[in-house]
């Protein structure tokens, strides 16, 4: 977690969850940036919407005077914004980790990671940049989570499981054992996955089957 003040990009329910985490960790929030002009100069709770990402007076603070977290809900837009920040500001987004999360090896976390309330990250599990780990998720020992993976609330990621880039795991899903979920694959909510899932494929059910 950062010791610098933070700007949050995006105004939406996910951004409010991120803001709550920073507040619980006593991190100062400068405000939100959102490119919807109707949101400029409004407030979300006590936090102001400063303007859009094109406003250099705020964009220019990132990396110099404050950290940033990208809380856009659309995965494509989120990735595009993160890449723009890293290229233009030469900085990676900070982590947003709920204080009730239990993390065995903090050194195995990367950058721009979101970890919700009550999540458990067990020993030797590794999370790459920009993962989103929902509330109550259990990532078991030795699991490998690659960049931009999203794991829905209440899911269990089995021991030594491997989730490739851009995977989406729906809420309350269970991945059993050391299986691999391929790049860009989707696991539907409530599924129990006992076999590998190929890249870009979708599975659902108990046991999960290809759709």
From TrEMBL:
The keyword Phosphoprotein does not apply. PROSITE patterns: HEXAPEP_TRANSFERASES. It holds the Pfam family Hexapep_2. Residues 6-84 form the PglD N-terminal domain. SUPFAM superfamilies: Trimeric LpxA-like enzymes. It comes from Aquirufa aurantiipilula. The lineage of its organism: Bacteria, Pseudomonadati, Bacteroidota, Cytophagia, Cytophagales. It comes from the Bacteria. This is NeuD/PglB/VioB family sugar acetyltransferase. Belongs to the transferase hexapeptide repeat family. Keywords: Acyltransferase, Repeat, Transferase.
């Amino acid at each position: 977690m950062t010791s610098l003040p933070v700007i949050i990009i995006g105004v939406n329910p996910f951004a409010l969850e991120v803001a709550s985490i920073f507040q619980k960790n006593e991190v100062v929030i400068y405000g939100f940036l959102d490119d919807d002009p109707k949101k400029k100069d409004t407030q979300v709770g006590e936090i102001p919407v400063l303007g859009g990402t094109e406003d250099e007076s705020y964009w220019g603070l990132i990396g110099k005077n404050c950290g940033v977290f990208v809380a856009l809900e659309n995965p494509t837009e989120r990735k595009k914004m993160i890449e723009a920040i890293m290229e233009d500001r030469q900085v990676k987004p900070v982590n947003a980790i709920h204080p009730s999360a239990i993390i065995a090896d903090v050194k195995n976390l990367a950058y721009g990671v979101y970890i919700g309330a009550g999540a458990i990250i067990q020993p030797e599990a590794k999370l790459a940049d920009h993962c989103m780990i929902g509330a109550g998720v259990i990532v078991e020992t030795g699991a490998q989570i690659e960049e931009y993976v999203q794991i829905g609330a209440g899911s269990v990621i089995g021991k030594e499981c491997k989730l490739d880039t851009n995977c989406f795991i729906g809420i309350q899903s269970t991945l059993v054992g050391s299986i691999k979920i391929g790049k860009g694959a989707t696991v539907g909510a409530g599924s129990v996955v006992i076999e590998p899932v190929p890249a870009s494929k979708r599975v659902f059910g108990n046991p999960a089957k290809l759709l």
